[in-house]
Structure formats: structure tokens, C-alpha cells
Amino acid sequence: MRELTILGTASQVPTRHRNHNGYLLRWDDEVILFDPGEGTQRQMLMAGFAVSPLTRICITHFHGDHSLGLPGIIQRISLDKVPHPVAANFPAGGREYFDRLRHATSFYDIADVRPEPVGAGFAVETPAGRLSALPLRHSIETYGYRLVEPDSRRMIPALLSAYGIQGPEIGELQRAGELDRDGRRVTLDEVSAPRPGQRFAFVMDTGLCDNVYELADRADLLVIESTFLAEDADLAAQVGHLTAGQAAAVARESGVRTLVLTHFSQRYVDPARFLAEAREQFDGDIVLAEDLMRVPVPARISSGDDRTLTSRS
């Protein structure tokens, strides 16, 4: 299963209907928690998730609405005796904040949480694919994350059957790249088609910059902040945030398939305004995030379905 569960969608101040941030990505056997804001532990309970499957925690920056839920999550990892290590990624310059949150209160600490600070050029291979991070433009050190599954090939049953290849021979062909069949060499390319790896991007708390587009490039699912509306674009630029229209334009110009807008300022009463503004810039799938919503990663595109990009001026 590849699915995003949205635990919270507020920005600096939570509301009666929006918790602070929290985003849980299930990607096959990997379960990654992004930006656990205050109340994340309870939101996971409300969404029907335990901490036990967690394999990684990724923090974009150390503002409270993106990180104050970390102590509760770590203490719950310890309480539930999660048997495997949990990696923790965060901006390297915020190590002091991570250490404070990691040991915020007294508890019986048996959690195997392994810090992996991120900086320029950070990338790590995970069972889900390559996880990388790029710096963003905000008031403190902030990083966005990008997960890219390796490209592979999809076996075509009709072609396998035509060459009489079946059973264990298929695995042998996949491993070796070729197979001798009745005196003829059959290559993997002859019986398969390219299978592009899927891509996920997570962009929070930033003004427009080149790395926003780099992170979003051809993402199947882009989760991106849209704190403000266009009427407050000047304020957004001053404090290092995006408007809904800017986030949607990023999606359009980066060839994104599904856009998830979140991190809404409490100053706006009608959330439909974010969708209306975004729709002016992006005609693809748009999800206006709500707490406890589940968003599936879009089905794979076929090898011939190229995502058309609009060049940036």
C-alpha cells in the first residue's frame, strides 16, 4: 500500500478543526512520519495507527507546529517497545533542538531512535527508494524531502509466453538480464517494458526558490504548504511562505500528478478559496487537505505517458 494519511493541516495556530502538522506516508513496508506537530500522537490514534510500524521520522525545521509532537512520539516508541530502529532526519543546524525534544521529559527510554541530520547534498538509500533533502527559504534552517523509487521493468506475460519462458526462468532472466532459450538469447528488454519509479515530495514553510521546483519535479504526489492566499502575497514573501496560487503553479511547472495543499493560516474562514485559487494555476488533481484524510499515491503511469512540463520564465 502507498498512501498518505494527513494528521494535521494548520499552520502556526491550530483551530477547532485543524490540528498542527503531521503527515504519515505508508510506502510498502516503509512508514515515514513527516513534521510531527503538537498532538500528533493523538491524531495517529484517531486515524487508527500505532507507532510500531514507523521506520523513519523526517522534520523539515524546528518551529513548534512542525516538531512539538516529537517527544510524545518517541516516548510512545519506547512505551510500545518498538523492536526496530527508527531513523530521524532533521536539519543539522537544529541538532540542539532535536536533542531537547528527544529528552524533553523523564521516561523509561528504550527507544532505538537513530539521528541522521541532513545538510547540503544529503541522500540516503531506503527500502522505499532514495530519500534526499534540499534547503528551502524560510526564517530558520529548513529542508524539503523527496523520495524516488528506482526505475525498473514490467514483465509482459504475452511476450514471456511467446518465448516459452515461465516459472523460475522469469526470475533468472530478471537477475541476469538475458536467458538462453532453445539456442536463442532472449534479453530482458525483449519481454518487458520500462516501469518508472514513483516520486513523492514534501515541501513545507518556504518562499519560492529553485529547490521548491527541484523537489517537486515530476512528483506523483506533492505535499506542499499553501499558508496564504494571493491577497496576502506580500506578507507571504516577508515571512517565507507560499500562497495557494504559487504552490499550484509549482505543481504545473514541475509536472506534478496529484497536488496536496496544506498548512493553512487560521486567518481564512473559507478553505474553498484555496482550492479556487489553486485551480486557476493547475488543472491536475488537487486535494485540499483535511485532518485524518487519506490520500492514495496515484497509480503508476505507463512507460509511454510522458508528463509535459511548462518551462519557467
How are the SSEs ordered, and which strands pair?
Layout: E1 2-8, E2 22-27, E3 30-34, H1 40-47, E4 56-58, H2 64-67, H3 70-79, E5 86-91, H4 95-102, E6 113-118, E7 123-126, E8 129-135, E9 143-148, E10 152-155, H5 157-162, H6 168-176, E11 178-181, E12 184-187, E13 192-195, E14 199-203, H7 210-216, E15 221-225, H8 233-239, H9 244-254, E16 258-262, H10 272-279, E17 285-288, E18 294-296
Parallel strand pairs: 3-4, 4-5, 5-6, 14-15, 15-16, 16-17
Antiparallel strand pairs: 1-2, 1-18, 2-3, 7-8, 8-9, 9-14, 10-13, 11-12
Helix pairs in contact: 7-9, 9-10
Can you characterise this structure?
This protein is α/β, with parallel strands linked by helices and 313 residues long. It folds into two domains: 2-151 and 196-296, Ribonuclease Z/Hydroxyacylglutathione hydrolase-like (Metallo-beta-lactamase, Chain A), CATH 3.60.15; 153-193, no CATH class. 25% of the residues lie in helices and 28% in strands. Strands 6-5-4-3-2-1-18 form a seven-stranded mixed beta sheet. The two termini are 38 Å apart.
